[in-house]
Amino acid sequence: MTGKSASLTFVRTEMIPASEPPLSEKGAIKWVRENLFSSWLNAILTLLSIWVVWSVVSHLFPWFANSVWVADNLSECRAIRDATVGPDASSACFAVITDRWQQLLFGFYPREAYWRPVLALALLLVGILPLLFTAMPRKLLLVLPVLPFALFWLLWGGSIWTPVAAALGFVVAGLVFRLLSPVGGLSLGVPAAVIAAAAFWLYAAGPLAGALQDLLPIGIEYIDSKKFGGFTLSLIIGVAGISLSLPLGVVLALGRKSDMMIVNMLSTAFIEIIRGVPLIVWLFTAQLILGYFLPPGTTFDLTLRVIIMVTLFSAAYIAEVVRGGLAALPKGQYEAADSLGLDYWKSMRLIILPQALKISIPGIVNTFIGLFKDTTLVVFIGLFDPIGFTNAIRASTDWNGVYWELYVFIGLMFFIFCFAMGRYSMYLERKLQRENR
Amino acid sequence: MKKSVIFGALTVAGLMATAASASTLDDVKARGKLNCGVTTGLPGFAAPDANGVWEGFDVAVCRAVAAAVLGDPAAVEFVPTTGETRFTALASGEIDMLARNTTWTFSRDTDLKFDFAGVNYYDGQGFMVPKALGVTSAKDLDGATVCIQTGTTTELNLSDFFRSNNISYEPVPIQTNAEAQQQYLAGACDVYTTDASGLAATRATFEHPEDHVLLPEIISKEPLGPLVRHGDNDWGDIVRWTLNALITAEELGITSANVAEMAAAPTNNPEVNRLLGTEGELGAMVGLSADWAKNAIAASGNYGEIFEKNIGENTPIGLARGLNAQWTQGGLIYSPPFR
Amino acid sequence: MALTEAPKRSFRLSQLIHDTRYRSITIQVVTLALLALAVFWLGRNAAVNLQALGLTPNFRFLSNRSGYDISQSLIAYDASMTHGRAAIVGILNTLLVAGLGCVTATVLGVLAGVLRLSKNLVVSRLMAVYVEGFRNVPLLLWIVLIYAVMTESTPQPRDFREGGTASMLFGDSMAITNRGVYIPSPVWSDGAGVLIVVAILAIAGAIFYRRFARKRLFDTGQLLPMVWPALLIAIVPTVLAYFVMGRPVGLSYPELGGFNFQGGIQISNPLMALWVALSLYTGTFIAEIVRAGILAVSKGQTEAAFALGLRPNRTMNLVILPQAMRVIIPPLISQYLNLTKNSSLAIAVGYPDVKATLGGITLNQTGRALEAMLLMGLFYLVISLLIAFVMNLVNNRMKLQER
Fold this sequence. Notes:
heterotrimer, A: 437 residues, mainly alpha, MetI-like fold, 17 helices, 2 strands, 1% strand, globular, B: 339 residues, D-Maltodextrin-Binding Protein, domain 2, 6-stranded mixed beta sheet, 5-stranded mixed beta sheet, 14 helices, 13 strands, 38% helix
């Protein structure tokens, strides 16, 4: 019975081996079909993209591949090219970078002192690490207040007592505040502290630093800011602008949200006027006009003027970003802070700003990236940032006629810094999003 | 936070507040450095070398003045200026003198309140064209596209020239020489116009200089020279007579090689003696030491040496003396007597 | 009410600091006083300095002869006209490049933003490279590089001569050279005015039709075809009028003569370079804005629309885009503002914008730094305040009506 039925029934007892899927439905072909050629439009786009990539690469590759890295001047570069790949081949002359990279990076900074900006950059990176990544030990944050003074001293040099005396001003301000705020509250303590610090800097800091220097001369060579240039200058302007514009921007944003009419009006006018005019016009103003408004007979350092202008400019942008953050907070947060009986500064410090700043982080980082890129505009007022150096380098008879190589190098440098900042902002955004859930 | 640090430090380190007193000479002496405005880079006239040391024809004037005033040709802080910023930099006291191939014109001397200390290079605006165009005169340039380096008197001269000859042109104003050069070589303009010295310098660095010609027309007078602020005549005198000392030195045969020897003891030529301070008190009259002119000449040589070293026929720039030869050689370079 | 009212007691001086009712007034008065002091101090310094330099600020230089030529001008201009006129030429050129740039940057940005979200890996990667590459390198560098690339990669006018390597496009009507792009220019003759009126009316008619169709859709649910009738209404009368009036508008073609092409309209190379660079650079920011806007609309919206049976393109048009727009438009307008301000980098390529004429050659020839900078700042300020005003209007219109 069983044997018979087994021979009769047409029911397969074992699985047939799975047959291969059709060629168009598997592996790379399937992936290509579904991803790159799923529709006519898609196919055209794919082909177009491949063509774009190909035309760029086919132009650039020989230029890079044939590049000359060691030569003393452009004609030598051309001679080497003629000897190796023939006279009409496209070939980059990166020898100009090998010859002049010190200037592109450090400007006219004395060669024996190159370690100073390098150390300053390293210190800066280490110093801000705990600020950037919460995983770092919190105690490292204590380094932060010392950092600006250390960086200043490293870059400009001179007596070590100069930054120390400057730092003492803050200590004086802190002490005055401590002493007076229990008596007169915030509204007495803050102005008194500011006045005390200003008086200290104006009248006591100089003699004090001088006396200390006589007593215990510690110092390194003083380097004038006219010597700063190249990428170091961009970084100095960028970092100073970034660190100064954030607090100023927050204050401006609070001013613009303030109920006090005059404060509000002033902040708004300031923000709109600064934002409404291109940075390049402000830089020219710093260079050409600011001098008219200083007390007769005084001038001050152009680099410093530029830093101030760049700071004001990006502070206005930061103020708008932070204002967006403040506006995005639900009204309940403000009301909750009020109902807890917190005064204005406490509610801002403890409740509103931490949340608002968190929302604004991507915008703030974008403003910083913009600020850093905008430092290239100083070339128009005669400062030697990397782009300014391209002119100077090409003005030497050795390198007159070099074009692309310098720009490619500079572009790459900026790309690295800006891309890193952009990635960090994305990392932060993702992290904060996770925390919110 | 850092802002206040810098401000605080300012009062200490003297980053700010260089209160200019009435006398530029006193300021320079107190500072121990001469602030000299130069271009951001012009071949042969001013450019930093690979070690960051400025070199060039204009730079040599700065060094000579620094040597005359401070005794040290290296005691110069070079301040790069652009066409727009140069006059403000000088007027505001940021620089003590400007040696930036600047044309001596009426309005700059009077309206802008500057004093030109003399002429260190007689230039004129010229044209460069590719040989392939077959142009032999600037008057054939009707309808041509012209690359101009901006921020100079060049635009005005060009406009005047084409208008007075009743021909049209299309200007392409370019910020820097390097950019203009790139545009010209790519054929984006038919003609490149700027000072003839600049044209020669630019042409010298081309891959095929023989394919380009300078047209015979020189359409303007461009006396280039160092300038100072109006009103401080003592300082103006120092710059003027330092330049004259360089010129006289060439005339009298004093070179950087023999100046030390000639200044060691009085020579037979009284003018040499007066100039080098072995006789008379010319230095004291301008408020400088007796060996001021000796220092200036020793800095980078006399006028002729400076010319040959930076822009002369043996350099890649390859300029002939032409108008800039001594008056005894048929040129315009002429110094009033030292007495 | 009477219970909570503050007891009316005599006013004490310390209340100015401690009493919150008076404190804000104190702060404001102090701020105002400090400000007035600062303004007075600055003004006095400026007066003293200017007097010492022998300068008296005035704007008379604007009516002096400028003496320099400008390569591109939307209004009649030559060297015999005034500095003021040159400034206006510059202003118009700034507005021109800013307007052109805003349009192309938007197109580019929207394309790149949408394509970056595409499932097509090649396309989305390419867009990512484009966005990251342009965003992270200074604009100044891009302007200079693009200018140089355009100069090097396009033929010179002399290559168009007989036996040359280049030739004109579209039946000898357009030439791309490294001095600019030459296109035919319209030649207006009698009756052109009528044609323009007809064209404007036709376009207005098309817009009116679309409004009507939309209203009908919302009121009655009846779907009228939108695209084709509107196009017909816009085009047909204009074409008819063109022939009825006897072809009142002709074209003047560029021709090679002398050193350059003559006739036609020249879009100069500096303008092209600045335009392209500004568009590509701002386009990346717009791309990110668009991408963020689309991602901000929650996926549920798409799913809901599909569940209602809407086709994908209608889902995009009727559901996703209107919601994404609310997120996109405010930052988009501030990008337009940035683009306008960035156009001041024109000096890098020699495009005669307001910075190059008023703030460049005029400033340099007259030495009137204070006045020229003031005028230029005012111009940019007015432009950006106008844009800000538009932005506020748009914001208010698009605001979600809450509670």
